[in-house]
Structures are given as C-alpha cells and as structure tokens.
Amino acid sequence: MSWDLPTPFVIDLQVGADDIDGLGHANNAVYVSWLERCAWRHSQHLGLDLAEYRRLDRAMAVLRHEIDYLASAYEGEELQMATWIVE
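^ thats the sequence. predicted structure below, dont judge the formating
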C-alpha cells in the first residue's frame, strides 16, 4: 500500500461484528477507536507505554483527526492503519 508520508507505523486490523452499524458497515466512530489503537501501538513500539509517560509526566496528544472515508469496511475484512510522527 502507498502512504501519504514516508516511514509509517502500520498495524493490521480485522473488522469485527461489534464494529458494524445498522447500515451493515463499520461505523465511522469505530475508526477513531482504531486510530487510538494504532497510536498506542506505535507509542509502545517506540518504548513509550503508559507507565513511561507517567514516569516522564508527559504524553503525546492528538491535535486533530482527519479521516477520508474512501470505501465502506465490512465485517471480516482486513484493513491496515498507519500513523506518523510529524512534529
């Protein structure tokens, strides 16, 4: 897959039954939950888990979310999600 920025941290996701809304596809609010999961895994990959953030009395914060919904996601589908640190 091609990403907008170089060297993304990528995770694989599977759309589960609980992610599906009344219209039969993944609910838009679920994407934010997936973003959080990806961000925490990226942070942990960098050695910054919750205990380390508490020790440092610092943490990363989301300043903005921007999601382009390019297609619907359905139960059982495999997705990839990526994050970058830009500043």
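DSSP finds two helices and two strands in the chain.
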